[in-house]
Automatic annotation (TrEMBL):
Protein name as catalogued: IclR family transcriptional regulator
Transmembrane segments: none
Protein's UniProt keywords contain 4Fe-4S: no
Entry keywords, A to Z: DNA-binding, Transcription, Transcription regulation
Ranges where the IclR-ED domain occurs: 77-261
InterPro entries named in the record: GAF-like_dom_sf (IPR029016), HTH_MetabolicPath_Reg (IPR050707), Tscrpt_reg_IclR_C (IPR014757), Tscrpt_reg_IclR_N (IPR005471), WH-like_DNA-bd_sf (IPR036388), WH_DNA-bd_sf (IPR036390)
Highest taxon above the source species: Bacteria
Positions of the HTH iclR-type domain: 14-76
Native species: Microbacterium bandirmense
Coiled-coil stretches: none
Pfam families: HTH_IclR (PF09339), IclR_C (PF01614)
């Protein structure tokens, strides 16, 4: 199979598209907007190149710039595109009551994240009632697979060859996210996740902020989403963690079943429509 890097070398204009797409992802991951300097740094671009691309995206309505702060934020065209794409990809409406139930029963903040290539993207956040909260995750925030608990849960249940390929593509994980994300410790945590059924992030992103995540599967058994909980460390102690894990797994299983059922209904409806017109 041709690699992404090879395609970028051979497809005319692919590099410019990839750079623009990287900026779009960074802009949408910043709830309050992002300054040019941080966008250029995170996209590994010069300020002038980043500004030129953002200006072009603004002309097309894909990003906008706040006049008061000069921060860049998603534009109106992204919303319009998103509403069209939602009918095919969006599972948030199927999941909202399940995420809410998870937050109510555990009193912790609950989330739905989706897999997007080598990352997870948070789609839904539901606040728990416990007054001390973690704010590591919110809608639009992205993490590499294997870093946050949602991505660790998804990565753990991918086929072994996909895990190997992912780790080969991302040797920078340890340098960027710490020793626990090196090849050996990360593989150990993946095995622990499989044995336990859910992933645990013991404050590896922000000290004192813990998270647990459980994979949500599509009809073919692929881990395409994850439910997760985050909170302060003392709320995830050894006495309470297994109970939280059982509750999380039950909700993840419920959502997996609901997603599979909804896809079967869509398939049945399409088949019936084809039969009527044939």
């Amino acid at each position: 199979m041709e690699s992404t890097t090879a395609r970028k070398r051979t497809v005319p204009g692919a590099q410019a598209v990839a750079r623009a797409a990287s900026l779009l992802r960074l802009v949408t991951a910043s709830a309050d907007g992002a300054p040019l300097q941080s966008l250029a740094r995170d996209a590994d671009l010069s300020r002038s190149t980043a500004h030129r691309l953002l200006t072009a995206l603004r002309v097309e309505g894909l990003v906008d710039q706040d006049e008061a702060t000069s921060k860049w934020m998603p534009g109106p065209e992204l919303y319009l595109m998103g509403t069209v794409a939602a009918s095919r990809y969006d599972v948030t409406e199927l999941s909202r009551d399940i995420v809410r139930s998870l937050a109510v029963k555990t009193e912790e903040s609950a989330f739905l994240s989706t897999r997007r290539a080598d990352e997870t993207v948070c789609l839904v956040r539901e606040e728990g009632s416990f007054p001390i909260r973690s704010f590591v995750l919110s809608e639009g925030v992205r993490f590499p697979l294997g870093v946050a608990s949602a991505g660790l849960a998804i990565l753990a249940f991918l086929p072994d060859h996909d895990v190997d390929a992912y780790l080969e593509r991302h040797p920078e994980l340890e340098e960027r996210w710490g020793r626990a994300h090196g090849d050996v410790p990360l593989r150990r945590r993946l095995q622990e996740t499989i044995s336990r059924g859910y992933a645990v992030n013991p404050g590896l992103i922000v000290e004192g902020s813990w998270g647990i995540g459980a994979a949500v599967f599509d009809r073919e058994g692929r881990p395409e989403w994850a439910l997760s909980l985050t909170g302060v460390e003392f709320r995830f102690g050894p006495e309470r963690l297994p109970q939280l894990g059982r509750t999380l797994l039950a909700h993840a299983h419920q959502l997996s079943s609901r997603i599979a059922g909804s896809r079967r209904q869509v398939a049945a409806g399409s088949a019936a429509s084809s039969a009527r017109t044939s």
